[in-house]
Design goal:
Structural class: alpha/beta
Strand content: 35-45%
Oligomer: single chain
Number of domains: 3
Number of strands: 23
Helix content: 10-25%
Largest sheet: 23 strands, mixed
Shape: elongated
Number of helices: 8
Length: about 400
């Protein structure tokens, strides 16, 4: 890129009164990319040129110094001088160019050493898997344009993987086919993946913290280990098989949740806007909420809180000392064992509820009738329409 265009970009940014960081956040790219444009070391692609034109309120020709009026102004301006020491237009000295240079990933993939964190922000599907050794591997599959636009670079000890956020453009939509495969060693500190619609698949990944979020795709995790586990999707399904974490948050806006063998030292929180939920876990406390779907929960936990807007609840618990089971209209089947000195709340807006605590339960019709065995310190039963009959021994 010419120095005239670089100076024009600096002039427009300063006239707008924004910093490099603020401009980078608006474009969805790194500050270092803005710095390179303004030093004439790199050129913005066509998508970023369009966004810069709109942001500054100038034509593309003016942005690229193609007008005769601007050419005359450039001739009359002071000549450009190479900076010595701090670059005069930077709020802070720029990072070393070699360290932050986006690296083209060859077809056979690339490897990166000394990586402590991974941050991936992409319109793509991502597969992350546990790998041997100390290096992180990255492989891209998709169209030539998608591979070329995907930026992969080191920022200190952070490996960044980025693609353009095309949802900003209203005049065309392109089907995304990019797939990113990331091999993660066991020494990984933190891995954060934010996707704009694609699926996320984790296989035998070990990291200090795992944060996975996708706008609408599915999330699948098998054999994950972390201190903090967060899996989120705007509307897809979430599937977890054999996961260990200090705390776990699993949320979907409307899809289904299926969890097998989740172990959490602290809290396990599972929420769906309306889908069904099937969960098997061990945790200090378990929260399972569904906007309207059925919940099937088998938990060994001190506290259990299950709620559905209208679905059925089937809860089997071991060792709980506090249990709350509520539904807006479905049936409730609650079977608890290994309980001593516990408090229970069972609430249905009109369905059938069956409660068993260290003993047997009988029920009939549209009401609650239960026999509670040894160990219950407090029992609270509610029905929206029928009678309640309880016998506590």
């Amino acid at each position: 890129m010419t120095l005239e265009i670089a100076n024009k970009l600096i002039e427009l940014r300063k006239a707008r009164g924004v910093s490099q960081e603020e401009l980078a956040a608006h474009l969805g790219i790194s500050r270092q990319a803005i710095s390179k444009w303004e030093r004439g070391e790199a050129s913005p692609d066509i998508d970023n040129i369009i966004m810069l034109s709109r942001f500054y309120g100038v034509s593309i020709d003016e942005l690229l110094c193609r007008g005769a009026e601007y050419e005359t102004a450039v001739e009359e301006s002071a000549p450009y001088e190479e900076p010595s020491g701090e670059f005069p237009y930077e709020e802070e000295p720029a990072e070393p160019a070699a360290e932050l240079k986006a690296m083209p990933v060859p077809e056979e993939g690339a490897r990166f050493a000394s990586v402590r964190e991974i941050e991936c922000s992409a319109r793509a599907s991502v597969t992350m898997f546990g790998a041997e050794g100390d290096e992180v591997s990255v492989e891209l599959n998709g169209s030539e344009r998608e591979r070329r636009e995907c930026r992969v670079y080191m920022d200190g000890e952070v490996l960044r993987i980025e693609t353009p956020r095309r949802e900003r453009f209203g005049f065309f939509r392109m089907r995304n086919t990019l797939a990113i495969s990331i091999g993660v060693p066991r020494s990984m500190g933190r891995a954060q993946v934010e996707l704009f619609g694609g699926d996320a698949i984790l296989s035998n990944v070990t990291a200090k913290d795992l944060f996975i979020k996708t706008g609408g795709g599915d999330v699948s995790a098998v054999g994950t280990r972390s201190k903090g586990l967060v899996l989120m999707t705007g509307g897809g399904d979430i599937s977890v098989d054999t996961a260990e974490a200090d705390s776990a948050q699993i949320r979907t806006g409307g899809g289904e949740i299926e969890v097998r063998a989740l172990g959490a030292k602290g809290m396990a929180e599972l929420r769906t806007g309306g889908g069904d939920m099937k969960v098997s876990c061990m945790a200090a406390s378990v929260t399972a909420y569904s906007g309207g779907g059925d919940i099937e929960l088998a938990a060994e936990a001190g506290e259990i809180d299950a709620k559905s807007g209208g679905g059925d609840l089937d809860i089997r618990g071991i060792g709980a000392n506090a249990v709350s089971a509520k539904t807006g209209g479905g049936d409730i089947a609650l079977a608890l064992r290994g309980v001593s000195g516990a408090a229970f709340t069972v609430s249905t807006a009109g369905g059938i509820a069956k409660l068993s605590v260290n003993g047997d339960t009988v029920f009939k019709g549209r009401h609650i009738e239960t026999v509670v065995g040894d160990g219950a310190a407090k029992v609270e039963l509610r029905s929206g329409g029928g009678d309640i009959s309880a016998s506590i021994e």
